[in-house]
């Protein structure tokens, strides 16, 4: 990976694709890809609460709004 990357921000708008399905996919992907880089995830749309609940208590930093997500990313990059 790029040593200059300090944080990754993933913003998902779940319309047809449900946020809980996206959360399951992210959990599986990051089980296979080990990284020390902080990951901030913002989920909004269909089943967003369920998706966020699946990600709580994991190594992901979960945000409800884009503003909150960007603030988290900035803080984690320092």
Describe this structure in words.
With 78 residues, the chain is α/β, with parallel strands linked by helices. It has one domain: 3-Layer(aba) Sandwich (Rossmann fold). Helix content is 44%, strand content 22%. It is built from 3 helices and 3 strands. Strands 1-2-3 form a 3-stranded parallel beta sheet. Helix 1 links the parallel strand 1 and strand 2. The model has no long low-confidence stretch (mean pLDDT 95). One of its GO terms (cellular component) is cytosol. One of its GO terms (molecular function) is nucleotide binding. One of its GO terms (biological process) is tricarboxylic acid cycle.
Keyword list:
Rossmann fold, 78 residues, three-stranded parallel β-sheet, 44% helix, 3 strands, alpha/beta
């Amino acid at each position: 990976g790029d040593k200059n990357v300090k944080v990754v921000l993933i913003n998902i708008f779940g319309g047809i694709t449900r946020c809980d399905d996206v959360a399951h996919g992210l959990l599986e992907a990051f089980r296979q890809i080990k990284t020390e880089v902080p990951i901030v995830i913002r989920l909004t749309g269909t089943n967003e609460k369920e998706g966020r609940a699946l990600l709580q208590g994991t190594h992901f930093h979960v945000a409800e709004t884009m503003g909150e997500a960007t603030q988290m990313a900035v803080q984690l990059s320092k």
